[in-house]
Amino acid sequence: MIFDPQHPHQAEYDDDGNIILPSGDSDSEEGASTWETIEDDSAEIDEIINAPAKSRLTRHRNSPVNIWKEARGKMKHVFQDLMNEGASQYRWSFKNMRKSICNTCYSFVNGLGALWSFLTQPVWIMNRKKQTTKQYSRLTLFILDTVRFGGTFAALFVALFVSLNYQSFWQISQSYLNPLNYLQSVNSRVSTTQSTLNDKLLRSPALATAGSSNGDLLSFLPQVGPPENRIIIPALGLNIPLVTPSYQALLAEDWSALEEDIQDALQMGVVHYPGTARPGQAGNFFVTGHSSYYPWATGKYKTIFARLHELNVGDEYWVYYGGDKHRYVVREKKEVKPTNVNVLDQPVNKRTSTLMTCTPVGTTLRRLIINSEEVDPISGTTLAVGQSHKKQAPKINIGALPI
Predict the structure, then answer these.
(1) Both 335 and 196 in a single domain?
(2) Distance of CA 35 to CAs 28, 38, 84, Å?
(3) Domain around 145
(4) How many domains in the chain?
(5) pTM of the model
């Protein structure tokens, strides 16, 4: 709409919607000027004016470099917002941590105070026999009840434990209570040494008769081992059958059946563990036995290794296997966990032996391991792999025989 400022502001619309501005004379229609209404289509004008700019802006924004810059800017803003949010949370947590700690300590102290007040609260106990009352605190009554309950439980546990393992404990206590048993063990050590010396003298070619020889026919007979495999431990006064279970379960890798075979064999003596070396071979000759077992279980050897812990480094034991005599000297004594299978290792460069049992007596918490080394039965020197003891038969003078 076009406006002429020279005309008065009184105007009126005609029937066609035109604005009529009167000139000087309001009654004269000749002097009237007319403004025509022009429809304002601003949307079309803006589209016409800005069309080139929009096309240039679209091309500018759709370029790969600008897209990457725009995405990188947005990611940067996102990470900055995250970092700022995390930093603000950490600052807030750090500022409130001291307050939280102080509140916790305050609550803990108040709780201890309330607990102490409760425990020190007096309680009067009536004595029915004397018809009197005695004052206690709740803490004192709690301690007394704990001691009574704990003592009763401990007494029941000890009684049950001893009743289940009384055979092993009786065997151990005999060695300490009876001095004759101690002297017997000492004499057995001496007799073993004396027997070794006698064997050395017996094989001396310069002596006519020596050692245990009495000059009779029996002294000239060759030494013969027992008809069955046995292990003899002089320090403990033990002479035990040595049992070897079947190898079928081991070859079939049936471990449950192997365990059953070993348990059955333990009823008849100590067990040569299947798969380990034999006496005289390179490897580890492994022997295991019971230190304690259920009283109602069958077998005479449930407590055969109850005193195995009394065996010390330097002690020796003898093994008769297949009619041959093998001598072992203890080199190491230790305890291991039940899951330790390294005790079954088989060395290829030496001849060793291992005695194993459960410890402490009556439990399966740990295993007592006695490692030994095979030595020459006469000289006591360590036997190398493949080396054997040479048996020297005494020279017999037929004319000197008492016939």
Answers:
(1) yes
(2) 17, 9, 63
(3) 124-164
(4) 2
(5) 0.60
